[in-house]
């Protein structure tokens, strides 16, 4: 199945980093990172590798994992999804948890869930992965910061994994520091086997501009691994900051049909240096030459392509998420009625607990999210606790505020007739703006770069959604998200 023609269009637009993929028969399954958002770790299904539908979330129960105190861009990092003899395994890291954190494994009979409670693993570092060999043995890899020879130096390490007892056993094997001397953060390690070779994929240079995918191989699963002379095998860091797809890396391989292979990976699509969509999931072709993988054969890069628009429509119920798990069960999305009911949580949008905010990923550079706001409801774009824009409806008007690392600043305040409730948050790829039904032009606007990880830092893209800021529950009606074509 040739995939290259659509490689420049994300298979999952909006913040879907660190994609991991697994195949069972003719079915493909994929999961991505979700950081401080709950429910966490969405699992998707596809038959053709291009069109993905959500199956559910691996972390979907209060009490399953404690995200209460995780900071912005902490929480659930870089899962790996694997199936072994009908049983599903998902390994992941909870970073900066206020309770137990570190690497854990979840298991399930069905990737749609229910997934088990976590079993914590005695594993340092981040980016856990599993490899099940043909002989029935299973191997766990992870990335640990060692900084022995240079700053930012990591080691990809391995131990055997007991898939019944769900624990690491046997000695540790240190496999690789990445392709280049001085490379920082050789991460996202995944082992795959093809014939008699074991391949180790890892992405180095950090998950931003210098991200680069490299590969090493070995005849024995525990090494020694020999880096490819052609490393890095895929990067966009040589294309310059003006190139429309950046930060390419963190790949996972899958067999596509009987002979072909494909990979999922993350990349960003900045516009004018701003990347509010965060790191998105892409799919690329993989060929093999001399028993080494060739990513995007004949091209060597993802070409930016125009994307289709969507909507206006109510986001599927599975897209709505909240921040952390300090409070749960305070909102309900009703797709048939196109409403979202949100109860106050006692925390404002700036956190640090669970603010009364329910949102979806911004999936298009140009988009509009609208809703009929009753008094006490708001509409917001959130990058992190301290970088956000919100418009709050009161009995007599609307106030627009922006927070950029400090206290909230008021951008606009207008009186509105009680009958005017339609408020929209949108972007034309240059500014985020707030508009009100029946009023000419935007009420307030901020540059897109303000809500952009490239400027504000962090691993997460923008979420857009609704808030409750008064003392009573609110119901937002007439909700519609429109993604504009072109990006
Ligand atoms: C993830 C690491 C990375 O753990 O960013 O691209 C971190 N890579 O592999 C968070 O997504």
Intertermini distance: 25 Å
Give a list of the ligands. Answer: (Z)-L-Arabinonhydroximo-1,4-lactone
Radius of gyration: 22 Å
Strand content: over 45%
Protein name: Glycoside hydrolase family 43 protein
Family: Belongs to the glycosyl hydrolase 43 family.
GO molecular function: hydrolase activity, hydrolyzing O-glycosyl compounds
InterPro entries: ConA-like_dom_sf, Glyco_hydro_43, Glyco_hydro_beta-prop_sf, Glycosyl_Hydrlase_43
Would you mind describing this structure in some detail?
The protein has two domains: 4-295, Glycosyl hydrolase domain, family 43 (Tachylectin-2, Chain A), CATH 2.115.10.20; 310-483, Jelly Rolls (Sandwich). The chain has one helix and 37 strands. It has one helix at residues 453-456, and strands at 20-24, 27-31, 37-38, 40-46, 53-59, 75-84, 87-95, 102-108, 119-120, 126-132, 138-145, 154-162, 167-176, 187-194, 197-204, 212-218, 226-227, 234-235, 246-256, 260-268, 280-289, 292-295, 310-313, 322-323, 331-334, 339-342, 357-361, 366-372, 377-384, 387-393, 397-404, 409-415, 422-428, 431-436, 444-447, 463-468, 474-483. The two termini are 25 Å apart. The model has no long low-confidence stretch (mean pLDDT 96). Bound molecules: (Z)-L-Arabinonhydroximo-1,4-lactone. Residues 17-18, 33, 77-78, 126-127, 187-188, 203, 207, 249-250, 266, 459 line the site of (Z)-L-Arabinonhydroximo-1,4-lactone (6LW).
């Amino acid at each position: 199945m040739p995939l290259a023609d659509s490689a420049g269009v994300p298979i999952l637009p909006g913040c879907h980093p660190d994609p991991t993929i697994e195949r069972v028969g003719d079915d493909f399954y994929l999961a991505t990172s979700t950081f401080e958002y709950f429910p966490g770790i969405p699992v998707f299904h596809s038959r053709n590798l291009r069109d993905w539908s959500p199956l559910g979330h691996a972390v979907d129960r209060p009490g399953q994992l404690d995200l209460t105190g995780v900071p912005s861009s902490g929480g659930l990092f870089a899962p790996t999804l694997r199936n072994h003899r009908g049983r599903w395994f998902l390994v992941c890291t909870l970073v900066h948890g206020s309770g137990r954190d570190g690497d854990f494994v979840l298991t399930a009979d069905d990737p749609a869930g229910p997934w088990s409670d976590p079993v914590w693993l005695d594993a340092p570092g981040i980016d856990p992965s599993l490899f099940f060999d043909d002989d029935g043995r299973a191997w766990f890899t992870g990335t640990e910061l060692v900084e022995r020879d240079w700053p930012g130096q990591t080691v990809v390490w391995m131990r055997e994994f007991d898939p019944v007892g769900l624990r690491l056993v046997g000695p540790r094997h240190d496999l690789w520091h990445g392709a280049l001397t001085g490379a920082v953060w050789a991460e996202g390690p995944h082992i795959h086997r093809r014939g008699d070779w074991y391949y180790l994929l890892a992405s180095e240079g950090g998950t931003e501009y210098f991200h680069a995918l490299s590969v090493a191989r070995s005849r024995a699963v525990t090494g020694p691994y020999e880096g490819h002379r052609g490393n890095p095998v895929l990067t966009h860091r040589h294309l310059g900051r003006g190139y429309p797809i950046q930060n390419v890396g963190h790949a996972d391989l899958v067999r596509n049909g009987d002979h072909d292979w494909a990979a999922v990976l993350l990349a960003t699509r900045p516009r004018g240096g701003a990347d509010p969509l965060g790191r998105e999931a892409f799919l690329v072709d993989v060929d093999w030459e001399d028993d080494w993988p060739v990513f995007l054969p004949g091209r060597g890069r993802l070409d930016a392509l125009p994307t289709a628009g969507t909507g206006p429509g109510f986001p599927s119920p599975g897209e709505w998420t909240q921040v952390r798990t300090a409070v749960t069960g305070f909102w309900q999305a009703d797709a048939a009625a196109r409403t979202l009911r949100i109860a106050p949580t006692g925390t404002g949008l700036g956190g640090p607990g669970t603010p009364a905010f329910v949102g979806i990923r911004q999936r298009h550079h140009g988009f509009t999210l609208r809703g009929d706001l009753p008094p006490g409801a708001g509409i917001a774009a959130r990058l992190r606790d301290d970088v956000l824009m919100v418009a709050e409806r009161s009995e007599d008007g609307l106030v627009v505020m922006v927070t950029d690392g400090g206290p909230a600043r008021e951008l606009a305040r207008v009186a509105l007739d009680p009958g005017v409730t339609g408020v929209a948050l949108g972007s034309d790829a240059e500014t985020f703006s707030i508009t009100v039904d029946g009023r000419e032009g935007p009420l307030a606007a901020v540059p897109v770069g303000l809500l952009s990880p490239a400027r504000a830092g962090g691993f997460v893209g923008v979420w857009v959604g609704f808030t409750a800021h008064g003392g009573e529950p609110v119901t937002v009606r007439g909700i519609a998200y429109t993604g504009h074509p072109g990006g």
